[in-house]
Amino acid sequence: MRKLYLLFISCLTSCLLFAQQKPNVVFIYVDDLGYGDLSCYGTTKINTPNIDKLAKQGIRFTNAHSTSATCTPSRYALMTGLYPWRKAGTGVLPGDAALIIPTDKTTLPSLFQKAGYQTGIVGKWHLGLGDKREKEWNGELKPGPNEVGFDYSFIFPATADRVPTVFVENHHVVALDANDLIQVDYNKKIGNDPTGIENPELLKMHSSPDHGHNNTIVNGIGRIGYMSGGNKARWTDEEMPLTFLAKAKEFIDTNKQRPFFLYYSLTEPHVPRMPSTMFKGKSNLGYRGDAILQMDWAVGEIMKQLENLGLAKNTMIIFSSDNGPVLDDGYQDEAVSKLNGHTPAGILRGGKYSTFEAGTRIPLIISWPAKTKVGVTKAVVSQIDFLASFSNLLKIKTNTSEATDSENMLDALLGKTSKGRTVLIEQGTTSLAILKDNWKYIEPNNRAAMNVLTNTELGNNPQPQLYDLNKDLGERENLANQYPKLVNELAELLQKIKNQ
Ligand code: NG6
Ligand code: CA
Questions:
Q1: Which atom of ligand 1 lies at the shortest distance from residue 71's CA?
Q2: What residue range is the signal peptide (predicted)?
Q3: Statement: residue 18 has pLDDT above 50
Q4: In this structure, which residue's CA is closest to atom 8 in ligand 1?
Q5: Nearest residue CA, atom 18 of ligand 1?
Q6: How many angstroms does the Cα of residue 374 sit away from the middle of ligand 1?
Q7: The model's pTM
Q8: Any alpha helices (H) in 189-239, and if so which ranges?
Q9: CB-based contact 387:80 (threshold 8 Å)
Q10: SS3 for 17?
Q11: Contact 408, 385 (CB under 8 A)
Q12: CA 297 to ligand 1 center in whole angstroms
């Protein structure tokens, strides 16, 4: 009897110990930040002291990737552990799209829920809401983040440049007025609100020629799509990051006694860039640079809060971006004219939308002072791997038919090994590439070589492309003709993975 009792006590102690060791996780996901946009990644034109501090106390990855060169597919992969190009309808979503994440499968947040965490999302969502496009914005918006694993959600539905420009907290638009109901339409003008195309004199920031972004004007900025009503609910761009930061901090504070997973998804430096007054003009690089400083400040505020609450040591902070950088993405915000020699993609070629490296090779920093080693790693990891890696860390098994593209990279993520993935697929806007042993093959593609609107090289070429990233990270010398065997091998492997 006594033996049984002792066994029980020792089990209990180890359970409690494990419970204590479970780290809180704050996943900070920023929007359109490039490989060369942070001072810890080498830029001398922007100073990001808070993110640099995070890098100093953790691991900084030089070969980390989002799955895709735009937002929705990268976020789809993060949530599901599946490559987005396997499923139609995972491209950049309109602001009234239906939810594209299945509600009956394991997702990254539901994994944390199963492990006893409180889970929350604050910030950009862009994975759809409800089960159809025609939505009752004034009612219960469901299914959404709360149905795929988040106990708490405070989001905006799509992008900052798409209507409706409102916050949604747990199924409901925040500050909705029953006498001023919201209507949204992506095909035709709705209601009487002025639009960028009809009333350019009302704009405080003009859209770039040919980009669109000239539908309903909200806060002096033309958006994509039309909305009417909800005037009290509409956000002010200058305030929005402060609102998100306050909500993120509130979530941390509410859950300080138990393990929590916070997905804090910032809009910076995505367009429209309209930073808070305290950051306007601070970077000397225009609003894009100012937005990056604002983002760095918000990261610092979260770090400070965790320290003040005594949670810093056992909280893992992950910092990353959903895709590469872009300068002119729709508004005349001086991102190009005030660039001042800054290179948002660092030495990489391409940018947002591109199959070249700058599309998906993004900054990734992981700091968990209690566990992670400190340093810089070349391990190849993808954001799609978080699901399998956390499944391993939290000891929560997923069904073998789920998250099948996600690989357990826990040791690499914690800096215990520099061995990452051997193979990775990169998704540009219209073509795929495969990375293996630092050789990169881009499949031939007849689509345009340039996104002329954004002035980005897309990486499309009717001929196969092969680059040796060990020697040529800038993808300048196409070696496909010199290594036809390797080209075939990689093309076949890509095909095989596509068919899996
Ligand atoms: C594009 C928008 C761009 C941006 C992007 C989504 C045009 C011409 N451009 O279609 O401004 O909103 O979608 O960005 O409409 S993402 O980071 O959310 O993928
Ligand atoms: Ca993005």
A1: 19
A2: 1-19
A3: no
A4: 211
A5: 71
A6: 36
A7: 0.96
A8: none
A9: yes
A10: helix
A11: yes
A12: 25
